[in-house]
Amino acid sequence: MTKSKSLPQSFRQLREKSPKSHAPCFWIHGIDEKNTSETVEKLKNKGFSGVVLSDPRLVEKIRPSGIEIWLLSSCFRVNDIADEQSTMCMDVTGRKQVWLGGGCPNNPILAERNRDEVRKLAGVPGIKGIILDRCRFIPPVAGLNGFLTCFDEHCENKAKELGYDFNQIRKDVRFIYQLLKSKKQIRERRGLMWFKGPAGIVEWLMDHPGLLEWLRFRRDCITEHVRSLADIVHHAGLRVGVYAYTPSLAPLVGQSYVDWSDFVDVFCPILFRKLPYRPGEGCLTWEITAIPDELGVIGTSIESIVTSIMLSWTRMTGPVTDRTISALRANGIPPEAAAREVILARSLVGKNRDIFPVLYLEDPLLPETVRLMFSNTANGMNFYSYKDNWEKHMEQVAQE
Ligand SMILES: [Zn+2]
């Protein structure tokens, strides 16, 4: 069987729908570490053109195949120094902790560690580029205290340097913390009415300008860091990719597609329609339900109201009909809604950047999701993550 014949017909059809002139790509995150060479050949024969690896030691095994190799660099990771107080994030109550294995994005030690790692990875011969992962502040899926960070001395100093009023930011973030923690107020729906529509939110934000400043400050910090890492990668003659929060969630964690479009080559929005396991970092349904869950709304009379509000903020109230947290987590968002996030990403980054959504390989609606994303301006797919039965999932994609 020749290579072109082994590429299923529908793969070719999908590719023809791409808006870009060059052929779109299929990537896979991870690889079989035992039968690496054979697996890579199989992947190539099925139309895959790239692999994303966390372990640079695998590069030499894969390099002869000619498939594109991208190395992953995880930002602000503190797994190896988790007890180190100085690199932890501080929540709005003054408590320091490690959430999701990440530390303070403004900590100079962590920032330099990231740059060192990226320099090292960029020196590995035979790679195509570096993917930056977890370059963000702590996301909502970590819970309220984790999300409402970081208020340590590094962030305070950085805010002053950038001209932000850190006291105002802290005051208003503390206000929202206390509001949400007040279960009585939430249950009695007094705090909820403001969140239902844009007019209420605008008025509320005008009274608490520190909240918007907080989001802008986080964006400035993350943009600066991504830019510094991208400079290193480009200087080595390589391409830069990012694993990014979906456009509906990105502003909450300091990620800006618009800012990044100046120096990021490949955007990989995390677009798991659903994910069967916790914590579900980056997965929209886990991200928007974690804090309501923590605040005890499950099983109460306001669960459907809170769920509707969270969905409306992400423009999902139309396509998503579930109104309980458990159903939302179980069913996920429909492929149409996920594809709409791709259109949004495209509108933010322009025509000349690659968009390779990260999809959950074991998603039962994978074929339809892939088709819709290709027909809505994605020009590649990144399947997460490698499993021994990957061919079975890709066969289903090909049959669509
Ligand atoms: Zn900090």
Q: Provide the CATH superfamily.
A: Glycosidases
Tally of contiguous helical segments = 18
Which percent range describes the beta-strand content?
A: 5-15%
> How far apart are the termini?
22 Å
Point out poorly predicted stretches. Answer: 1-10, 17-21
Using the coordinates above, name the CATH class. Answer: Alpha Beta
Q: Tell me about the largest β-sheet.
A: 9 strands, parallel
Radius of gyration: 21 Å
The distinct ligands, each listed once, are: zinc ion
SSE string, helices as H and strands as E: HHEHEHEEEHEHHHHHHEHEHHHHEEHEH
CATH topology term: TIM Barrel
Secondary-structure content class:
alpha/beta
The rough form would be described as globular
Total DSSP E strands: 11
Provide structural commentary.
The chain is α/β, with parallel strands linked by helices. The protein has one domain: TIM Barrel, CATH 3.20.20. Helices cover 45% and strands 11% of the residues. It is built from 18 helices and eleven strands. The protein has helices spanning 3-6, 9-16, 36-45, 59-62, 108-122, 144-147, 153-162, 166-181, 183-187, 198-207, 209-235, 257-260, 284-294, 303-313, 325-331, 335-349, 366-374, 390-399, and strands spanning 25-29, 50-53, 68-74, 89-90, 96-97, 129-133, 239-244, 266-269, 354-355, 358-360, 380-384. The chain has a nine-stranded parallel beta sheet. Strands 4-5 form a two-stranded antiparallel ribbon. It is globular. The structure holds zinc ion. Zinc ion is lined by residues 89, 104, 106, 150, 152, 154-155.
